[in-house]
Design goal:
The chain has about 150 residues and is α+β, with helices and mostly antiparallel strands. The protein has two domains: about 5-75; about 100-153, no CATH class. The protein has two helices and five strands. Strand 4 (about 60-65) and strand 5 (about 70-75) form a beta hairpin. It is globular, with a radius of gyration of 19 Å. The termini are far apart.
């Protein structure tokens, strides 16, 4: 299953005997940036449910695209007639530019023209959005960025 710059590869139980050969094949491909199999799927938040055999992050580099924006990744072709999204932003892989997204936000708790250089986590997005919408959301994993420590820069 394609997910932009990554793919999940499932095996039917009758084909499980081919798992090691499939892993060797994936490890030998230039288009594979990282391959996670049964022993390390949990390292990226995946589990061996429903026949998941491998998670593949496609090759990525720091080269610039046609607009001069750094960070290129190979993208997996979608299945079942879904439109191809080449030239657009993608997700799913482990390329450095996919793992360092940009968030721009305006509203209470954010001073205009300030850039935050301190680290944040993807789990901070939901609490930030919920606070922006004034919706109580106790018990979330992340933290709201509206009133986080003073940003530098």
């Amino acid at each position: 299953m394609s997910s932009g710059t990554s793919s999940l590869i499932y095996l039917h139980p009758d084909s499980d005997r081919r798992r090691d050969r499939l892993g060797d094949f994936l490890a030998s491909r230039q288009w594979v940036g990282a391959c996670f199999g049964p022993a390390n799927l949990a390292d990226i938040g995946q589990a061996r449910h429903n026949g998941l055999a491998y998670a593949v992050s496609l090759q990525a580099d720091t080269g610039a695209n046609e607009f001069g924006i750094p960070g290129r990744s190979l993208a997996a072709l979608p299945r079942w007639g879904k439109p191809d999204r080449l030239g657009c932003g993608q997700h799913g892989g482990l390329g450095i530019f996919e793992q360092s997204p940009v968030l721009m936000i305006q509203g209470a708790g954010f001073a205009p023209g300030i850039s935050r250089t301190t680290g944040v986590h993807v789990t901070d997005l939901a609490p930030t959005i919920m606070q922006h919408l004034a919706v109580a959301a106790p018990g979330m994993d992340g933290r709201s960025l509206q009133h986080a420590p003073s940003p530098s820069g």
